[in-house]
Amino acid sequence: EDQVTQSPEALRLQEGESSSLNCSYTVSGLRGLFWYRQDPGKGPEFLFTLYSAGEEKEKERLKATLTKKESFLHITAPKPEDSATYLCAVKVPGAQKLVFGQGTRLTINP
Amino acid sequence: NAGVTQTPKFQVLKTGQSMTLQCAQDMNHEYMSWYRQDPGMGLRLIHYSVGAGITDQGEVPNGYNVSRSTTEDFPLRLLSAAPSQTSVYFCASSYSNRGAYGYTFGSGTRLTVV
To answer: A46–B58: do the CB atoms touch at under 8 Å?
Structure first.
């Protein structure tokens, strides 16, 4: 069964304290891995798509990387406005859907 | 450019009532879908559509109906609301489902069934 697991469930950092979020997946024939940011009371907002192992994407303080079994979302020198829930999802061949992980709730304290 | 618009934002229903959650997109996206988000369970697919006139079931379709008469609109109907349908509902669209295109989500409808 296709599965996506995110860790940790929650992470609290001080402003400027860099860290990484993990997304591990068990799918056969990955067709894309997606990272989303979700603020309270809002819909998920698209951040990145990664297609193949070794690929990296960056946006401001965020960098996403992909291996054959997992993806990392690295957050460098975060600010309080980076506080949100970060969702990981995978697209598998033949499936008309994204399979989502349960998310990591990130809190950045000033 | 509004993206994906969902209405209403909040709704309280009594058990047994029916209602329609509206979803509209203005990006000419081929693919549209409905997800529900529950604490500890992540986002789960209810129904999806790959184009006007074509719909299919996702993981948790029971108690819900959909139709897609136009490219822009994809309403979700609750036939007879149950407390188990208390959730946050998101509509999402994508240019195509035949590739690794990102989905654009609406802002959600928070539904409570009492």
So the answer is: no
For residue range A56-98, list pLDDT tens digits in order.
999 999 999 999 899 999 999 999 999 999 999 998 777 677 8
Partner B contacted by A25 (CB < 8 A): no
pLDDT digits (tens, 9 = 90+) for B74-108: 999 999 999 999 999 999 999 877 666 789 999 99
CA trace torsion B91, B31, B101, A31 (10° rounding): 100
Number of CB pairs < 8 Å for A and B? 59
Contacts of A40 (CB under 8 A, 6+ apart): none
Q: How far is B15 from chain A (nearest CA, A)?
A: 24
